From TrEMBL:
Family matches, as Gene3D superfamilies: 3.30.1240.10, HAD superfamily/HAD-like
Name used for this protein in its record: Cof-like hydrolase
Family annotation (InterPro entries): Cof (IPR000150), HAD-like_sf (IPR036412), HAD-SF_hydro_IIB (IPR006379), HAD_sf (IPR023214)
Entry GO CC: cytosol
Organism: Paraprevotella clara YIT 11840
Length: 263
């Protein structure tokens, strides 16, 4: 294999266990060892910044957040930023305000976020991810704001309809049956990786990525060394260069040792 100079890590189910909501010590040690060797470490997550509160003492060089729509360095320098179009935001606001089949939406804005309503699905996701849901506000509060993501709580069978009618210029990145992350069209984690690599002056053949969910497919199929966790979905395993053990079985550390990136 070529020399790896940058590694991108998903959070949920990759760095952080769904069982403990923590990063295994083996992973913390492995990532520290990578950085001590000069390898850049970037987080690549569907989570927006306000929901990233579970990394503990992990050291990293920057983040790809909102499934690629907002990327920045550890020091806060913006590498890439692409919000949802005002047209899509307005169509969703109108539907949630006047439609007959409204659904909960978390509007993730550049400076704040809010949710339009709570229900059992929202509560279940909050428990799964160990997060506190934001303040409930009417959908109209999103007007005029820089909206990066619409975390939309509709099931997969309704997704084609809502995406076509309300958000035709957006991309849906579903990794859970209860909701999907909707971002600007033409953006995903692979786009974020390309932006970060260009910023760092690195090439794609110097990149590796770890993931476990459906929103990691583009990322792991894009880099030459895509590593799927043992707990990953089957679709992701099929496009990966290598499948390691689960997050709870020290999968990150084992894969990095397999490729000779740590001792």
């Amino acid at each position: 294999m070529g020399k790896i100079k940058a590694i991108f890590f998903d959070i949920d189910g990759t760095l952080v266990s769904f069982k403990t909501h923590r990063i295994p010590q083996s992973t913390l040690d492995a990532v520290a060892a990578l950085r001590s060797r000069g390898i850049k470490v970037y987080i690549a997550t569907g989570r927006p910044v306000p929901f990233i509160d579970n990394l503990g003492e992990l050291e990293y060089d920057g983040m790809i957040t909102v499934t690629g729509a907002h990327c920045f360095t550890r020091g806060g320098e913006i590498i890439f930023h692409r919000p949802v179009s005002t047209g899509s935001v307005e169509r969703v606001v109108e539907h949630l305000t006047h439609g007959t089949d409204a659904y909960p939406v978390i509007f993730v804005c550049s400076d704040e976020m809010f949710i339009t309503e709570l229900n059992e699905d929202v509560d279940a996701v909050a428990r799964l991810l160990d997060i506190k849901m934001p303040t409930v506000r009417p959908a109209s509060y999103a007007r005029g704001k820089d909206v990066l993501q619409l975390i939309s709580f509709f099931k997969a069978d309704r997704e084609p309809h809502f995406m076509t009618e309300l958000m035709p210029d957006c991309t849906s990145m579903r990794w859970h049956p209860f909701f999907t992350d909707v971002i600007a069209g033409g953006v995903d984690k692979s786009v974020g990786i390309d932006k970060v690599l260009a910023y760092e002056g690195l090439s794609l053949d110097e990149a590796m990525a770890f993931g476990d969910g459906g929103n990691d497919v583009t990322m792991l199929s894009h880099v030459p060394y895509g590593i799927a966790m043992g707990n990953a979905c089957d679709e992701l395993k099929r496009v990966s260069a290598y499948v390691t053990d689960s997050v709870d079985e020290d999968g990150v550390e084992k894969a990095l040792r397999h490729f000779g990136l740590i001792d």
